[in-house]
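Exam review. A common question shows you a sequence with its structure tokens and asks you to describe the fold in words. Practice with the pair below. Do the first one on your own.
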Amino acid sequence: MSEMPYPIKDWEQAIKQVKSVVAARININQLGEIEEVHILAGSGRVPKQIVRDVESILAAQFDLQIDHKKISVAQLEENEKGNSAIEVSNRLKLVGVTLRTVNGMAEVKVEMLKGDTLLEGLAEGPSSSHNKLRLFVEATLKALEPLNSGLLFVTEDVGIIQLAKQHIALVSITLIASTGEQSLTGCAIVKNDDREAVVKATLDAVNRKL
């Protein structure tokens, strides 16, 4: 790894100075270059504003130029009890998430309600820990097929990270349409089940396109 002019902690601390930012974590590649910036923020500002401010502060303080696509923002909102929760769409209701494993293979089923209509998606594959999370993304996308008007969604990556002592599911999806490709990202706080959080993060990523 190449020698870096500033420690990562200094970069993260600078990002925390941005209005509404609660926590930040930076991942770098083997060359010491910023690969990903994960941000946990309050709901008081539009994510695009936060991203622009992060770009500006890194450029001003450290002369770092970063592609905005590498910055992901998970937003918190206060619910009636005063607890923080990831803002997710209420257009679809998640009613069931199941996992069955047999002889090293996993079968995932996701069930959702759109009004009175039950949407169901199934996905199968090897039962490794990471691939099972990926299957929950793919099962969710299959359940949404009746709503996507011919759009093609491709699962790129999924993972669970920790920010501000909370675990967050992050999903990266590519939308392939007649106008070209578009990268979509979604996130959701892991409350009791990381699988449900992955499903909600998938919905967060594709909701605006449905």
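Now try the second one, then compare your answer with the model answer below.
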Amino acid sequence: MPAWFAAVIGGYLLGSIPVAVLVARAHGFDPREVGDRNPGFWNMKEQLGWRAAAPVFAGDALKGTLAALVGLWAGALWAGGGWGPVYAAVAAAMAGHAWPVFARMGGGRSILTFAGGFAVICWPAFLLGVAVLAIVGLLTRSFARGARAGVFGLPLLQLIFTSVEQVAATGALMCLIGLRFGQAALAERRR
């Protein structure tokens, strides 16, 4: 039980760090009030350009990576290993990014936090996903299309390296992303 508690609390607190809000404040605005109102990398890239938004990209991904490492540590320390605490920590980081306690519960869609955590969960599939992103991005001349192909291809790529149960757990993590997109669509409809 301590492993799961440490993984969830540590993951949620890491995920709650509002990287986009902090970077945007340094540039004099709140990302929740401009563009698509999503405090994440894509909105920041649209507002500031790639270079100024790069810390958001790195920070949001790093939150997931650090959360997964907290889960690994907690699992090794108290639970004798296993992937359960790692998935719990990444899910908590994604929830923290989506509903951050440090930013009035107004967060992003958790894609980069998921990707950063997945890099620990299954690094060979992660690297293949990056290759898919690059190839599709170059062929279509669209980073967005490449990113979609890379992220949504991760469970299929993971199946090469891990058990079906782990792939199902990855699918459950991705459902959090779907939930956030659904919430964003409803909020947009209400405006």
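Model answer, second protein: The longest helix spans residues 50-78. Residues 1-109 form one domain. Full marks require stating both points clearly.
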